[in-house]
Amino acid sequence: MSDLFAHDEPLAVAPDAYLLKGFLSDEDEMLLAEIRRLTAISPFRHMQTPGGYRMSAAMSSCGTYGWVSDAKGYRYSPTDPLTGNPWPPLPDAFLLLSQQAAERAGFHGFSPDSCLINCYAPGAGMSLHQDKDEPDRRQPIVSFSLGLPVQFQFGGSERHHPLKTFALEHGDVLVWGGRSRLNYHAVRPVRAGVHPLAGARRFNLTFRCAR
Ligand code: MD3
Ligand code: FE
Question: Which residue of 23, 104, 134, 198 is surrounded by the most CB atoms within 10 Å?
């Protein structure tokens, strides 16, 4: 698909948080093919929260560290607990695109060592939470959305702060840093549908500095 949106100005959605509409529109097929390849090595699985709930999004990771959750808590691990092997390396194209997105949003020198791969079937979502398992809070988180659209909600630094909602669509990138790095956020349940390239799924890649 031609790149109608990627040259737009980043849309400020919160202080130091930017939405890059359609940033991935030339790279969507490559990204989906890489997700397929990576998850043949480290398969999608439903993790347990420390409280014993099954997460509705299926997850995998690539990079030096992967995010894991189980009865012992949330953490980054150099090995995939499902396979016992290291996570597959972060593809060069993932690294480059995430760095270009960070740069476009005004964050220089972004060098992620972890990419969490989330897969949402219809009905799956993510309840309100903060991302605080990463030690260096000066580093942003860069998120890529592919496949089915979803309503994304974000609030403030405390759970009770009011929420704003907007759609995340195939090809969109979000960059969260600085003053919004610890904002609460949630993903509403994905509605049934079929995306022409991704099928009945939404995929989200989040690039992080785990160390
Ligand atoms: C706002 N993933 O994996 S990405 C997650 O669409 C997660 O799969 C969602 O939240 C998803 O933790 C949302 C957008 C996002 C990512 C990180 C953030 C928003 C954020 C960190 C701080 C504030
Ligand atoms: Fe999150």
Answer: 23
